[in-house]
Amino acid sequence: MALKLIDRLVKSSGWSVATRFPYELVDAEGVLIETIWLRPLSRAEVTNIRNSAGDNVSEISLRMICSSCYMTASGADKAFDITELPKLNRELSSAMLNNLETALLNIDKPASNLIETEKKD
Questions:
Q1: What domains are defined for the chain?
Q2: What pairs with residue 69 in β-bridges?
Q3: What is the pLDDT of residues 57-76, one digit of tens each?
């Protein structure tokens, strides 16, 4: 029996929330700080994040980052804990957070250098 389209999409690489993509965090000079792994969020997760953050766009963005970033490809350990939201908001530059958010929005692209190439074009 053939699999339904939804089942094929869930099992395919890149479209499932089980997929992780590497992303290189670099400093202002382009020096690698850490490679983290990004996981796509489901619509249900995004809805829950929006409901918990209300109309605060910055908090929605930060919660999405906390929910999507992992230290390993297995997703066993989150890169940021939700309790770190105030510090992320207060102490990281808007440019760094925007880069992470852009990567999340372009998560089907496997590497950050592709995102940088898009920005330059």
A1: 17-120 (3.30.2220)
A2: 38
A3: 999 999 999 999 999 999 88
